[in-house]
Amino acid sequence: MNVPVLDIASGVVVGHDGSLSSDRALVFGAEEARLRGLPLHVLRAWSLTTTPRPPGVPYGVVASEDEYSAAVEAELGSAVDRLLGTEHGLDVRMHAVHGAPAAVLVAASAHADLVVVASRGRGGFAGLVGSTSEHLVRHADCPVVVLRG
Fold this sequence. Notes:
With 149 residues, the chain is an alpha/beta fold. It contains four helices and five strands; from the N terminus they run E-H-E-H-E-H-E-H-E. Strands 3-2-1-4-5 form a five-stranded parallel β-sheet, with helices on both faces. Strand 1 (12-15), helix 1 (20-36) and strand 2 (40-46) form a beta-alpha-beta unit. Helix 1 crosses helix 2. The longest helix has 20 residues, at 65-84. It is globular, with a radius of gyration of 15 Å. The model has no long low-confidence stretch (mean pLDDT 90).
């Protein structure tokens, strides 16, 4: 998968994979965006195995990439509303990107002011930090916050 060019000129980027730990990263990232007066970019890198099934697409039919992206963006919007409320006062932008999480987050860091991720996402491997957050810390072009727990 090629990593697309993201429409991020500045702001706080939060990697969100739908896990409880990424919910905490979203709340932390929103507060940082609020304190800094920056846009909040909520980003999920997805693949066919990690994306929600698009509504209205019958089983046995493969949805288009646009339909999968729209389903991911809707799930991100629901997470923002659930965690921050609908009157959060932030400039929130959703990004659903078909690609590997580590590569997509590093690409997003090129123009971000800060990237926030959880130490452990949906991966099931034990350890202090996950492979995505470790890769991001090593290769990001901006400061990175990795939230434990």
